[in-house]
Amino acid sequence: MKLENPWKQNPWFESVAVAQERARKHLPQPVYGALVAGSERGQSSADNQAAFAELGLAPHVVGQLPERSQATTVFGHTIGSPVIISPTGVQAVHPDGEVAVARAAAARGTIMSLSNFASKSVEEVTATGATTFFQMYWTGDRDTMIQRMTRAHAAGAQGLIATLDWSFSMGRDWGSPEIPERVDLKAMIRLAPKVATKGRWLWQFGQQFRETGKLPDLTAPNLAPPGGEAPTFFGAYYEWMTTPPPSWEDVGWMRETWAQISGTPFVLKGVCRVDDALRAVDAGVAGISISNHGGNNLDGTPAAIRMVRPIAEAVGEQIDVVMDGGVRRGSDVVKALALGAKAVLIGRAYLWGLAANGQAGVENVLDVLSGGVDSALRGLALSSTAELRPEHLLIPDGFDRALGVPEQAAAGR
Ligand SMILES: Cc1cc2nc3c(=O)[nH]c(=O)nc-3n(C[C@H](O)[C@H](O)[C@H](O)COP(=O)(O)O)c2cc1C
Questions:
Q1: Where are the alpha helices (DSSP H) in 181-325?
Q2: Distance from CA of residue 364 to its chain's centroid?
Q3: 0.70 exceeded by the pTM?
Q4: Which of 27, 272, 293 to mutate to test the pocket of ligand 1 (most atoms within 8 A of CB)?
């Protein structure tokens, strides 16, 4: 048997932190800044990661098991590792964008979620063969939403994620990166000092330009009207901002409409409160993602991981509960599962990988995470992620944040 150097398994980076550092060096500052994101003072974004570090593990020294399984069935799909690609509407990270991410998801047998603000079309992404869930915000009128759902279904999307948590909080204490309305010559000249030093990034997009005549696309092709042109990112954002916020009746309508169009799962992303989770069950969703949008939304929302146990205890028997926010290593995945999540979604982690090395970089990130899950299972002497329970963790007092527990809400009135 040939002896392989185990550190060579992930030849580009051995942790998500290293991938992030590669991305920072590689990307022009405004593009990197858009990935770091966060809102206001950055409290929720920081807590998403810090909270994972408050949780400990208690490993066994003997009795570990030689074979360990990470397979899980979530939203009707069996995936080899409980890590799903979260939708991110990010542009200009890599010329292959979401297509590269989808190829990596397909190669590693997980679910790809595609943002309606993505730079690649749902048709291009499903053509990779990845199991694709299409994500929609509540934007446009009902007829427009039906048209977008119909298109996603026709393209082969196998689930719909409705992200309804966005509250249009603008402004960051560290300043927001400039994103041009269009990457035309004027914008190129203005941004030149920030991109001029990023040789490989420029070269990658230069190659795209030579092959296709196209500069990085800051448009949202999935929001194009039938036969019409894709709106710019800002045009799409304006439509979203000016759409009246949805009611629970609207959520029910969206779920029902998607069921009629596609018959595949409907997932509500952005749930933070027990009462909202219960209402989501009433609205007939297949699952929820407990999330504060990676800390990019209403700052001061607790870390997603702090909200997992109370919500999973309330609705985890009835629907699939997943979480996202702050997952950077396999042990984070294990902690989320032990607290009651069926799987996790990752955002920035795969974006760092994409920036650092395209499809292979995303695969590398997925491998780093599944390798970490496997190590944690081994240390905990478990044969499967399905066995994970809160008692496998060291949980400090007061760790959980149970928001909107109905009795508490009533008592507080
Ligand atoms: C740059 C960026 C863009 C995002 N765009 C979207 C989006 O278009 N739709 C959506 O549902 N969530 C979006 N999210 C949120 C992610 O899906 C996910 O909730 C979050 O990134 C999880 O936190 P993590 O980045 O710490 O893993 C975005 C997140 C980031 C960082």
A1: 185-195, 199-212, 233-241, 248-261, 274-282, 304-315
A2: 16
A3: yes
A4: 293
